[in-house]
Amino acid sequence: MPASDRVREHAGQGATTVAAHRARRRLRADQARQLADLLRHQILTAGFPDGTLPHESTLTTEYRASRNTVRQALDLLRAEGLVERLPGVGTVVVGQKYPHGLDHLMGLAETLHEHGRVTNEVRTMGPAPAPAPVADRLKVPPGTDVLYIERLRRLNGLPLSLDLTYIPLDIGTALLGADLENTDVFRLLEAITGQRLGHAEITLEAVNADTHSAAVLEAPRGAAVLMLERLTHLADGRPVDLEFIRFRGDRITMSGLLHRSL
Fold first, then answer.
1. Among 24, 47, 130, 194, which is least packed by CB within 10 angstroms?
2. 213-236, pLDDT tens digit by residue?
């Protein structure tokens, strides 16, 4: 075989080896992500009662994974702030996320009452002309004054969400003297209108925190936050509360019970 052909053959074998190595790395990354998902669920549902994860060798056997895959999975959870490695102890749970249901129309304090006390810092509050998209959703003429509220909401003192709220002014005026620091807006709206809230339309997506939101929520700039857009109606169908809520994604989980219908 000519020397040039031998060089080409050797180069081809090298390329195959590199490709196989990259494929193995991708496969291990996929397996690590899958394992991290399983462990994350156990962490968030108190699956490790003593707060300590099993030893790496136990995880390796239980999940039929390599030691490198297990370590990579734990690194992913460590980067999320859920676990930490302590010398002489092992991998322990250091983070907690709070459950927020999507199948019940409830205020934040009602939703998280089992986990502690929700307080609200009212950062901005007052009449403001309704931008066209807000006016359209609340069924008021564009430019009509609505009540605008910006609140930082904390659970046990920890920043949890930044809420931007728009309410028709004929209802919102009564909120100006209300105890918004300790009371959910939902409860106040029902008291003011004498009606129960009926239903809400929601949209949930992940967005990057802008500089202002990150600073208020004490989150890293550019960190992903859960954005919940919710338009709430009274029982008679009138839209009364349009909210844009930015949740710290590292402190909240969204869940619901869905039924299949075709």
1. 194
2. 999 999 887 788 999 999 999 999
Going by C-beta distance under 8 Å and a sequence separation of 6 or more, which residues neighbour residue 96?
Answer: 44, 251
Portion of the chain with pLDDT greater than 90, in percent: 69
Which residue type does 52 have? T
Which residues, other chains included, contact 209 with Cβ-Cβ below 8 Å and sequence gap of 6+? 217, 219, 220, 221, 222, 223, 224, 225, 246
Task: Give per-residue pLDDT as tens, 50-80.
Answer: 999 999 999 999 999 999 999 999 999 998 8
Q: Using alpha carbons, list the distances in angstroms from residue 97 to 31, 43, 115, 155, 259.
A: 24, 9, 10, 11, 25
Stated pTM of the model: 0.79
Distance CA 212, CA 117 (A): 25
Measure the CA–CA gap between 4 and 136, rounded to whole angstroms: 73
pLDDT higher at 25 or 40: 40
Q: Under 8 Å CB-to-CB from 13, ≥6 apart: which residues?
A: none
Biggest CA pair distance of the chain: 93
In one letter, which amino acid is 187?
R
Nearest alpha carbon to residue 100 among 33, 155, 36: 155
Q: 104, exposed or middle or buried, with CB in 10 Å at 0-12, 13-18, 19+? A: exposed
CA 210, 214, 217: angle at the middle one, nearest 5? Answer: 140
User: Where does residue 127 fall: left (phi above 0), alpha (psi -120 to 50 degrees), or beta otherwise?
Assistant: beta
